[in-house]
Amino acid sequence: MNKICILGLGYIGLPTATMFAMNGYQVVGVDINDNVISMLKNGQIHIHEPGLEEAVQTAICNGNLIFSNQPVEADAFIIAVPTPFFDGDVNHDYKRADLHYVISATEAIVPYLKKGNLVILESTSPPQTTINFVQPILEKSGLIGGQDFYLAYSPERVLPGQILKELVENARVIGGIDKASSEKGYELYASFVKGKIILTDATTAEMVKLMENTYRDVNIAIANEFSRLANRFEIDIWKAIEIANLHPRVNILHPGPGVGGHCISVDPWFLVEAAPDITPLIHTARQVNDEQPDYIVELVRQALGGDLRGKRIAALGLAYKPNVDDLRESPAVKICQNLATAGASVMGFEPFKPDMKFDSFSTAVNLEFALANAELVLLLVGHTQFSFLTPERISCLTDANIIIDTVGMLNTYPWKENGIRYSTLEVQQNDKNLVTSYS
Ligand code: SAJ
User: Is ligand 1 within 6 A of the CB of residue 293?
Assistant: First the structure.
């Protein structure tokens, strides 16, 4: 295998294409977005991921990585397109996977598929997508899966922000439609993967990916529910979690403003959709995490005396998690929108995307501008640069004397001594006077 065609140049496809190109393969990266292709041809990337732009430029200079808006003949095809859920799907009480990108990418391969080719699906997909959707579409070529071509599912499991490192170091699972397909997939990925490579069948590999993200979602949901209980019983949630986690078999995750991103807030629904009758826990966890932004809006409302109309709120961080520029399914954005709908005047600030604009609320291009007129500061994302917001610095930048820190990042600073009311997801124990005025 010398030549690889990768369909979808997003957060996974682009780093994967680059990694193969840096390891000696001829790679053609394909995307249907012409703007993305022209940026990449100029050596610029359209996403924020540490080290990626330099790596793409190196691969282009080596002559191993080129970009196109159409597939080409190749030895191996990798599908790395998004699998979102349907927007505004009102007929179900769960969200359903929208597989149209996977289907159209697979269809796009058909005219180029030859005997002996390997096709890998990397997109997170509902159980049995590889055997029930991808294989039959590819067989429209007249070739038979497992006989004329190899087909496998191999999920990406990398963490945005650490993609280049994790692509190499993480364990990789490769699930073929038959043993030969798994082994062919092994041959391909072993060129750069240093983590363990596990061979299995396609549906197990699909389930493994969904189980991992669902496990995390359910665990974040219980952390969020614990934070609500902590608020009810007026205890410090962070301290309680710290103590509970001293138990050798307990590891409670962080509560926060909710779960965002294109993975954990989406993937568990694929299991619920596939088997709604046997997934009540997964369904409920999704609901708990999806409701967390409303819970935060309520905390802000209480802190501001029960009425949000006309209140000036600086919302720091709009990304779905710390130190990334990705706003997909971001709970921070949802919170800003809901605050604005309730009448607040919201000034959002996302340092990784300072030019981002929204219909319902304003955005600031820098921290100073975001804080200037605020009466309440709402920390929504634990970006490293926000960790330096000491009481002194805040006092210099704003007259706001209320801070709500939804990620518990600033809870070691002496806010009270500096005349600032500070609370996290719960009302602080050491601030009992405020407890009553908040609730
Ligand atoms: N979050 C919390 N509390 C926590 C951890 C996360 O509220 O304790 C929130 C984050 O703020 C964010 C969301 O959950 O809004 C998801 O963030 P994440 O860092 O947990 O995960 P992702 O979506 O960036 O990446 C996940 C990873 N999966 C797992 O950790 C099991 C990654 O390895 C996968 O490759 C990725 O999904 C994916 O592409 O599926």
Answer: no
